[in-house]
Amino acid sequence: MITIVLAEDHHVVRQALRSMLDSERYFKVVGEASTGLESIELVERLKPNVLVLDLMLPYLNGIEVVRQLSRSQPQTRTVILSMHSDESYVSEALKNGALGYVLKTADSSSLVDAIRTVALGKRYLSPPLSELLIDSYLKTSRDSSLDKYETLTAREREVLHLVAEGNTNEEIASQLHISRRTVEAHRARVMQKLDLRNQAELVRFALQR
Question: Which three-class secondary structure string do you get for 22-83?
């Protein structure tokens, strides 16, 4: 039996995915999440075999979710579900720990095949994504100079993402279950590490990422 957590912020889409996956023999959806932070909490608690993860989630996007979980829950393999076919999105997902990448334009059999494949620890890219092209892109990104974003801690990245979504310090503190003063300290360190001077530059950097 392959246990699955679904992370998708659109309720109707999530329910359709659950219905489709539950109809497959040897698949069992054990949890659903609608935000990035919920995804991390669910996977850490339920420890599923596979996480099916939308790339664009509120309160932490899919790239950062898979980055954190690949370190804290390596036994859970991730399939990214995305509308973006650009090589930069795919390579960023794979570089941060995803094993599968399925386009939302693909048919349902692609997602089923992806889940079965990554559960075995193998990589899966849905057509028309090219293994050779992605491998080349990954090599180029590894050979490039250090990105300042890579110097941020997991908590600092969470604060950065929540700032970019327009959350106040109080709202961020509530979402992350920390104090407002701690949020302010994280924001200050993020701006120092990224060499940013003000709030506008911080938001602009986050949105570009």
Answer: HCCCCEEEEEEECCHHHHHHHHHHHCCCEEEEECCCCCCCHHHHHHHHHHHCCCCEEEEEEC
How much of the chain exceeds pLDDT 90, in percent?
53
Number of residues written out for the chain: 209
What gap in Å lies between CA 51 and CA 80, rounded to an integer? 8
The structure tokens 């890579």 sit at 150
User: Which pTM value belongs to this model?
Assistant: 0.76
**Burial of 157 from C-beta contacts in 10 A (0-12 / 13-18 / 19+):** buried
pLDDT of residue 204: 83
For the domain made up of 148-208, the CATH class stated in words is mainly alpha
pLDDT over 70 at 139, yes or no = no
Contact present, 89 and 103 (Cβ < 8 Å): no
DSSP state of 9: S
- What is d(CA 52, CA 73) in angstroms, rounded to the nearest whole number? 14
- CATH ID of 2-143, from 3.40.50.2300, 3.20.20.70, 3.40.190.10, 3.30.390.10: 3.40.50.2300
pLDDT of residue 13: 93
